Amino acid sequence: MLNTLTTGFIRRLKDRDEAAWYELWETFGPVLRAQLTKWGKGRIGPDTVQDLSQETLAALSDSIERYDPARGARFSTWLLAIAKHTLGDEIDRRMALKRGAGSRGVNLDETWMKSARDNGVSPDGDYEAAVFCAKVEKAIRLVERESEFLDFEIFRRRVLEGENGKAVAEALGTSEPTVSRRLAKVRDLLRIRLSEVVATYSFTSEEMDEPQRNGLVLNPTKSDDALFDEAVADIHHRLAELQRLDDAAG
Amino acid sequence: MPMFVAILISILAVSVAVLLVIYVLVPLFAIIGKLIAHVARFIGGMFSDTLRAIGALLTAILLSPLVVGTIVIGRWSAAAHFGRAVQREVGVCFFCIYRVLIGHPARLLGLRALTEGIENRVPDAMAKAPGSDKPSRRTGQFDGYKIVGSLPGGGSGARIFVAEPDERKLAIFSRSGHADIIQVVIKSFSVHDGSSLPQIIRESRSLEAARRLGLVLDHELDENRFFYVMPYVPGRDLTTATRALHDAAGPDGLGRRQLDEALAYAADLLTTLDRYHSGGLWHKDVKPDNIIVHDGRAHLVDLGLVTPIRSAMTLTTHGTEYFRDPEMVRMALRGVKVHEVDGAKFDIYAAGAVLYSVIENSFPAHGGLSQITKKCPDALKLIIRRAMTDYHARYEHVPSMLADLRVVMDAADPYAVKPADLPSMRGESPERIAEAVEEVRHAASPVPPAAAAVGQARPAPAAPARPEPDRPSPLLRVTDWWKGRYEVTGARPVGAERDDRGVHAYGFSIGARGVHAHAGPVRLTPPGSRPSAEEQLRRARARVDSARHRVEARMRRRTRSSSFSNNPNAGVGLAVGLTFGILGAVGIVAYSNRDKIDDMIRRAQAQTGAPLNIQIDAPGEDIRAAIAKLRDNDSARRSLESIMVAIDSLDGIKPDDSRARFESWLGSAAASAPAAPVPPKPAATPGGVGTILVLDELRDAAPEVRRGYVEPIAEALAGLGLSLIRAGDSPDADTAIAQARKELGSIPPQLDDQFREAVARWLATQPKSLRGVLLFRWTNPGADAEPAATFFSQRGFDADWLQRHLPPGAGRI
Q: Measured between CA atoms, how close is A184 to chain B, in angstroms?
């Protein structure tokens, strides 16, 4: 079932809000590029991948108008289905051109609207992980924009780079209690933004529970903070590694 | 008891065997496996490097004609460029040979192998090839400049030339503070060359400001074309320089020396950016590819996207991904105007991204969240992050970033500098930061260590002179209300000239390090002590002469490396040598084949006795008349005929066809040439080069028979160009005949099919030059016996033709 944030975002997409499109591109572009590179390996080059990932996003608005929320597809499945369709369309177009025929595209298969388990469009684990990591990265980015530089620097060193509180305090010329206080501030903000991002880009309750499954407790007790920090750092590094592999493959 | 002992021994034996397997055999097999893998790597390496060497050589051969071709058409820059490519390929080839001969064998013996990755250089060389050295007729000439070369145009569609200004232009540049200019870069946009109007407008919108800053020396716009002139600085881009730094440093990151060099480049970049921003410009496309490193200095180039900071236009999303602030894109998509934002902050983001790419040897794929994984001082990490953080939290202006960077640069140990030691982190008051900014802004830019060898050349503005800030009105500050004392503060007013001798007409001046106010009495030169007008003119001329001499001396001191050079390099020499080597080899092969052809013709000549030089004296003469003329000359005719003999002797050509065509053509030529007298038909027509084996059963015949029958036929055949192998001519001939007789068996009195088949089989085993077997024998044994000649033809040789061409006096075969 779509929530308010999701429908609001989709409305912006449908209204051709360029900022919304850029936001989608900035957040999920790398994931789509990686997936298209994986599928089209040997058949399409990096430039085509770039074009196709943009076409994939362009196809979203048409697709979402026919979306039936009752059928239970995930957001990641949505992206995957459209990316697959875009790539297939491109391959068909190339083959048609080779044969000297026209460039008629194929119709989008809408079986993706069903649950991933039922329709056979089953994204693999890496792809699912990449989509979720992209959501977390998006939330971190939002927090960076909203936080003071020093606060986020503390968060970055303490959580993403794993430095201890004392070292961070010494490096930045502040005290440990200040580090803890500012870190808590950023962490709280991150939880809020993460909830929003996950809600914006999730279609199903299964997706909504994804942070919980990955150790990101959004309504925590004090003891959950350490686990939350560890999970954020792990996801951040995982996405960086995916990006590195993507760059190496490209 | 024995059973117990046996069991015990068995257990012990099994245990020993298991231990043996675990501790001896398994490691042994592991070692053997490693050895096999080691040898396999050696073989694989030898194989791949051999192929790589061959590939590099082939690539060099492929490129060599391009060098020669570009030399021939006068494109010296392109020739030098391709020459460098050839040089690289030859280097790779030699390196692979070295690995095959030394590197891999050494590795096999346990020494560490060298690794090397080959890039696809040819497309790169082709993509970066400069255009024509001269502007096309459509582009037009550039008045006051002599074009000496060209540079790759980049993505803007502009044509870029390297030029030398004439004396008039040099004088103009010198007056505007650019006395060091020797060569310039002309970036030309012409609608005839494919540039569009928006491009021209975009490039031209900031030119006046750029000219004031000294980034642009000259520019011109007419209805068809637009060009601007910048100082020329050779060098290589920062991407290449960064790669070289990391190659020298190793995989962990930059060492101290490389770090110092990288920081110096960053400081140069920031100094230049500050100059842009002070002049009211925003570069908008700061990236490593647009930074040229030369002689230890970094120069920011490419004015393609330069935008006035106060422009009323809407923000655009132009720029380069990863070096463009995502926030700028968001703002552009919201329709924000340029003057509503601080464009300098977007340049700061790009500067941070450039610094990141220098440290990491990669691009910041995650923007401000990109991880720095290589060795880097802690404080420098913070500088990068502060530059790339959110728009509102980033450095306010370039000097504040430069002030932070200077702290790291000046530290004895950059790794010991804590982020908290940076000025921006000290929490100093805005006034103090503003002072630090001013200090940095007016400090001289650092001189980094010498850069590596100069590679690719790009247009770049030389370090321009700092523009003079706007001249504010002087301020009078009253210091003593009672006594009416006051002091003058601020800049000198318009019209005041700086006096190098330290005499300041208004008590304050603008120096290289800022605005200086001078309190106290104003010193003016008394009118009586002024020199005469003539004396002033003389002094002025002396100063001009002195300045000119200084400039000339400076120009002479300029190293050769600082000028654009399209002189032939080692690669050009290699390529020319390679090309001529190949041509020489082809010539040698052709020459050796020519010898074979000559041999064949000489053989034909030996048989006909005719000279083979055929020449048509008058060029353009009608071929038929020429042929007719040739027919007058018996020698020439025989030469033609001998060539036909040679043609007939070639495999796969039917003698009758070619000869019939030739004779028909020759006859028609003679018939259609009325002026030429018809020569008498020769007594004999050659039938083909070759030999005929003679089996003579008439050896014992009466002399009359031999003279009357055998000898005429033999002479007639010889006259047709056929040589006869006859018994008694030579030992070889005797041997050949004896061999033939042995294989053919006895000759029956009546020739039957069995004998004919035996002869045919034997002939099939002989070379084609043996045209057949001529058998002289008696027919009708007894009193009615008559001599007869029977010819057994080799396959492909027409015996009827032989019969037709026998002279009438000769006997029949």
A: 19
Q: Do A173 and B420 touch (CB under 8 A)?
A: yes
Contacting A residues, span 58-117, partner chain B, CB-CB under 8 Å: none
Given a contact cutoff of 8 angstroms between Cβ atoms, the answer to whether A123 and A116 are in contact is: yes
Interface test with A, best of B316, B324, B331, B333 (most A CBs within 10 A): B333
Q: What are phi and psi of B70, to 5 degrees?
A: -70, -30
Which chain A residue lies closest to B392 (C-alpha atoms)? A145
Which chain A residues are within 8 Å of B327, Cβ to Cβ? 145
CB B798 within 8 Å of CB B701: no
CB atoms B330 and A19 under 8 Å: yes
CB contact (8 A) between residue A172 and residue B425: yes
Q: For residue range B272-326, what is the model confidence (pLDDT) as tens digits?
A: 999 888 888 888 889 998 898 988 889 888 777 888 888 888 888 777 878 888 8
User: Per the structure block, which two tokens stand in for B493?
Assistant: 């007013």
CA A48 to CA A40: how far, in whole Å?
10
Three-state secondary structure along A78-116? HHHHHHHHHHHHHHHHHHHHHHCCCCCCCCCCHHHHECH
Residue B587 in tokens: 């010539």
**If residue B145 lies in a helix (H) or strand (E), which one and from where to where?**
strand B145-151
> Which tokens hold the place of B769?
């030059």
Question: In chain B, what residues touch A18 (CB-CB under 8 Å)?
Answer: 333
A235: closest CA of chain B, how far (Å): 13
Taking the C-alpha atoms of residue B135 and residue B127, their distance in angstroms, rounded to an integer, is 19
Q: Report which of B573, B611, B442 is spatially closest to residue B514, judged by C-alpha positions.
A: B442
d(CA A49, CA B114): 35
pLDDT at B693 over 70: yes
pLDDT digit string (tens) for A18-42?
777 778 777 887 777 777 777 766 6
Verify whether the Cβ–Cβ distance A247 to B365 is below 8 Å: yes
The single-letter code of the amino acid at B233 is V
B88: tokens are: 């690289």
Q: Is B423 on the interface with A (CB under 8 A)?
A: no
Rounded CA separation B662/B668 (Å) = 10
Query: Torsions phi, psi of B308, nearest 5?
Result: -65, 135
User: Do residues B86 and B122 touch, judged by C-beta distance below 8 A?
Assistant: no
Distance from C-alpha of A61 to C-alpha of B502, rounded to nearest angstrom: 72
Which run of H or E residues covers position B437? helix B430-442
Q: Which two tokens stand for residue B506?
A: 């208004």
Q: What is the pLDDT of residue B507?
A: 32
SS3 (DSSP) at B350: helix
**Closest among B95, B11, B104, B449 to B255, alpha carbons compared:** B449
Q: What count of other Cβ atoms lies within 10 Å of the Cβ of residue B563?
A: 15
> Mean pLDDT over residues B635-647, rounded?
56
Q: What is the DSSP string of B355-390?
A: HHHHHHSS--TTGGG----S---HHHHHHHHHHHS-
Q: Which of residues 332-361 of B touch A (CB under 8 A)?
A: 333-334
A151 touches chain B (CB under 8 A): no
Q: Which residue has the higher pLDDT, A62 or B583?
A: B583
* Residue partners of A167: CB distance under 8 A and separation at least 6: A157
The pLDDT tens digits of the residues spanning B164-196 come to: 888 888 888 888 888 778 888 888 887 666 666
Residues of B in contact with A171 (CB under 8 A): 378, 418-420
What residues are paired with B475 via a beta bridge? B489
Helices and strands in chain B: count of H runs, count of E runs: 25, 19
- The candidate with the shortest Cα–Cα distance to B83, out of B71, B93, B73, is B71
Q: What is the interface pTM, i.e. ipTM, of the complex?
A: 0.76
Instruction: State the pLDDT confidence band at B618, using cuts at 50, 70 and 90.
Output: very low
| Separation between Cα atoms, residue B406 and residue B654, nearest integer Å | 92
